[in-house]
Specification:
Layout (H helix, E strand, L loop, with lengths): L2 E6 L6 E7 L14 H11 L6 E8 L4 H17 L22 E6 L10 E6 L8 E9 L5 E3 L7
Antiparallel strand pairs: 1-2, 3-6, 4-5, 5-6, 6-7
Bound molecules: zinc ion.
Length: 157
């Protein structure tokens, strides 16, 4: 079902209809900030600027998969005991149809003690156990200098 909202363009102040969901909402000129005319100009101009940063998940041993899983369980328990709903990112698990590994468990964590503002991901397979799991750190790759550093989240607006 499509959802439309009346908006005012941040540049030309024209009133326009923004499609918040449904077929067509992914069109580039359907912007929550700009009317279709201004959005077209903005995105055409941005096409001339190459991407300068990419992200990559890199295997890490510190913290380990076990430590990340334990931290997430600790947070879930603390939230439950405080009468709160534990919020976590939902990731689609993989299923090994050969039956060898079972179901994959995954999680993404931030605010890990000792790693301020860094994002980690873990994955482990049910039948191999969390000990055999893998931890990843989200890295920022500078495509110009090829330097990398842990990815840090900042507001984009
Ligand atoms: Zn406009």
């Amino acid at each position: 079902m499509a959802s439309f909202q009346q908006r005012r363009c941040q540049h030309c102040l024209t009133r326009y209809s923004y499609q918040a969901s449904g077929p067509g909402s992914h069109e580039q000129t359907n912007s929550g900030q700009w009317c279709p005319v201004c959005a077209e100009v903005v995105y055409t101009a941005l096409k001339a600027i190459p991407q300068r940063v990419a992200t990559e998940w890199v295997v890490t041993t510190e913290p380990s998969c076990q430590e990340l899983v334990a931290l997430e369980k600790e947070r879930a328990t603390a939230a439950r005991e405080a009468g709160q709903v534990f919020a976590r990112r939902v990731l689609a698990p993989l299923f090994d149809m050969t039956g060898e590994r079972g179901t994959q468990h995954q999680g993404i964590l931030t605010r890990v003690p000792g790693y301020a503002n860094t994002t980690f991901r873990y994955e482990w397979w049910e039948k191999k156990g969390v000990e055999a799991g893998v931890a990843y750190v989200k890295m920022e790759i500078n495509l110009v200098s090829n330097e990398s550093q842990p990815w840090q989240e900042f507001p984009t607006r």
